[in-house]
TrEMBL record, chain A:
CDD domains: LPLAT_AGPAT-like (cd07989). Residues 38-160 form the Phospholipid/glycerol acyltransferase domain. SMART domains: PlsC. GO terms for biological process: phosphatidic acid biosynthetic process. Pfam families: Acyltransferase (PF01553). It comes from Aliiroseovarius halocynthiae. It comes from the Bacteria. This is 1-acyl-sn-glycerol-3-phosphate acyltransferase. GO terms for molecular function: 1-acylglycerol-3-phosphate O-acyltransferase activity. Signal peptide: none annotated. Pathway: Lipid metabolism. InterPro entries: Plipid/glycerol_acylTrfase.
Automatic annotation (TrEMBL), chain B:
GO terms for cellular component: plasma membrane. The chain crosses the membrane at residues 49-79, 91-110, 116-137, 149-169, 181-201, 222-240, 246-269. It comes from the Bacteria. This is Phosphatidate cytidylyltransferase. The keyword Hydrolase does not apply. The keyword Disulfide bond does not apply. One of its GO terms (molecular function) is nucleotidyltransferase activity. GO terms for biological process: peptidoglycan-based cell wall biogenesis. Keywords: Membrane, Nucleotidyltransferase, Transferase, Transmembrane, Transmembrane helix. It comes from Aliiroseovarius halocynthiae. It holds the Pfam family CTP_transf_1.
Amino acid sequence: MLRSIAAQFAASAIVLFARLVTAVRGIWFGADPVNRQRVYFANHGSNGDFVLIWTVLPPVLRAKTRPVAGSDYWLTSKLKTFIGRDVFNAVLIDRNPDTRTEDPIAQMVEALDGGASLILFPEGTRNLTDDPLLPFKPGLFHLAEARPEVELVPTWIDNLTSVMPKGEVIPVPLLCSVTFGTPLTIQKGENKATFLTRAQSALAELAEEAAT
Amino acid sequence: MSAPSEFSTLMLAVLSILIVATAIAQLLKRKMGADNDVIENLIARINAWWGMVALLALAMLGGKAGVVILFALLSFAGLREFLTLTAKRRADHWALVISFFVILPVQYLLIWDDWYGMYSIFIPVYAFLFLPIIAALRGDTDGYLSRVAETQWGLMICVFAASHVPALLSLNIPGYEGKNVLLVAFLVVVVQLSDVLQYVWGKLMGKRKIAPRLSPSKTWEGFVGGVASACLVGAGLWWLTPFTPLEAAGMALVITLMGFFGGLVMSAIKRDKGVKDWGHLIAGHGGFIDRLDSVVFSAPIFFHLTRYFWSV
């Protein structure tokens, strides 16, 4: 009880903080902010990425949208566990195939079956290169195959890496935006490589769209 | 909460203008239809003006604290827009953090403290010399000069120049004690009204473009009509100031010209960076810099002219 009140309070504080620092704006370019089950797949450059997506989602959608995050990061301290589990209600997956006891895809499917929408970073890790995107990991494909009716929304997060580059603690206040592209779904019989290329280029094109 | 009596007279005038503008916009909407883009933008602009006037009035009623805090916040919002567009790399992180969280607040504390000798050199000298050192220590030389130069430019425009508006409160003008907040009102009203009048004259009879590549909406007709009418208004507002009507007209001419060119310069930067507006937070206007560019360019000149000729 106390924990859930604290979690709600922390969520509001985090959203307010994100807005003060980045004045983040959601641009619903190819999709509308409607109550439909979705997987938002986004570029990943900063730990604050899902906070930004979360912030621009209308509260109704926010309440049922769960980020998919690495348990190897989020379960390493009490505070991180509280934020990851209680505040963001994240689907925590173990990214290391050698140590994991649960199948990450099964965990995501279970969350979808529970009615949640997901925020997924298909690059798998934060992109610290100068390229706009790292090659996508196959998770998005397996998820799409398992639940083909769920809309996959390409989501481009702009500028957050400059606000908080890896390893820095104090954010620089700069304007950020989150652009939602046209949803895509997996086609019958589409193979892994084709699908991942299609999803990746949809996100890359959205990035160029967002820049103009 | 102690504003000079002239302040309420001015507020009454500004509110009447806003009411008339709102009425005209609604009439135009009824006549031209609700889906006309120009009218829609006009209405958004006027609505935003109500908010901006309310905020400014509130700040001025709050006296020195109100004006200093308001402009510190505006500097923050402006600097955030400016530095979003400038060249930067990971190596600039600390220089940027220091710009926002040390240089900006210190500049406004110096203004609050009336320390003229320091606030007029703090950014042009100290920030100018120390920020490039911090950036250099990180060892990344790619685009180094553009990075440090653009950051310094942002600080000069959004913090240094903008802080000259509240700095007006520290001027000591014989016979004008306790009324300095009216100088702020005179500057802001004349410059912003000049922008509005240039827009109105331009929309009504603008034909010949001044700088089509920089700013397609600026025309000679709008410029001449706007500046001339703003100068008349400025002369008519002499009772707010320590100036005679003729001096007020001259001052109004200087600040409206600076304001016009400020808009042009900031447009050039937008074109260079490939954006249409600086931001999105003021509906109908764009970003904070879109609204403040003219004030920022005129404030330091207005401050120094007033200081040199009128203060002791």
